[in-house]
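Supplementary Methods, section 5.1.

A reviewer requested that the exact input to the structure prediction be made available. We therefore reproduce it here, unchanged from the version used in the analyses.
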Amino acid sequence: MKIENIGTVFQLSFMPRIFPVNCYLVEEENELTLIDAALPYSAKSIIKAAENIGKPITKIILTHAHSDHIGALDTLKKLLPDSQVYISSRDALLLEGNSTLLPNEKNTPIRGGIPKNIKTKPDVLLEEGDRVGSLEVIATPGHTPGSISLFDTCNRSLIAGDALVTRVKLIVSGMMNPLFPFPALATWDKETALKSAKKLSDLNPSLLAVGHGKMLKQPRELLNIAIAEAKKAFYNQNRK
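The structure derived from this sequence is encoded token-by-token as follows.
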């Protein structure tokens, strides 16, 4: 595991050179919020990182319910029984293993690693605009129907899950990067993902932290380039 710290955000990256899977510890005044739960073997390393910071993990927020973001959830809940688990109300269904589309959603199959046999039940179901400590919930569907991002209202840090990818280069979820194609292959709806990316760009974050790839300071320019590339690719695809 590799740890990088920028401000109040600690990135914990598993398999960083091969297939980077990131989760994050966000530092509050007296506690830590864990965003995503990485891989099944990640629990002890996550807890050790929190011990080194010197604050307890009291909240676990899941940006979406793909298996590489909830892998250590059950183990973490056993080791941290007093921690509260948060997920969007929509992706709570995916966490249960239910990949059925809702009536108002595009008739496109939900892709990626859908959880199986997760025992942990969320304590809080999140909606757009909810607050968890300093973090504001931003609905960013596209990668999954219920994906969320977390925007720190104190310092404008943005933890965006798989709404964006920075491995190799910054791209919008669903856009194919041959050197790291996996997030694109696991994206539910590209058009919706593009709308979510524009929404995140409008926040003008000071820091962008994602599920796969390095953190980026002052990412606005690169975000605009990624959005323009995605818009062009989507337009060309629809013309065929």
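The two ends are 43 Å apart (CA to CA). These observations are discussed further in the main text.
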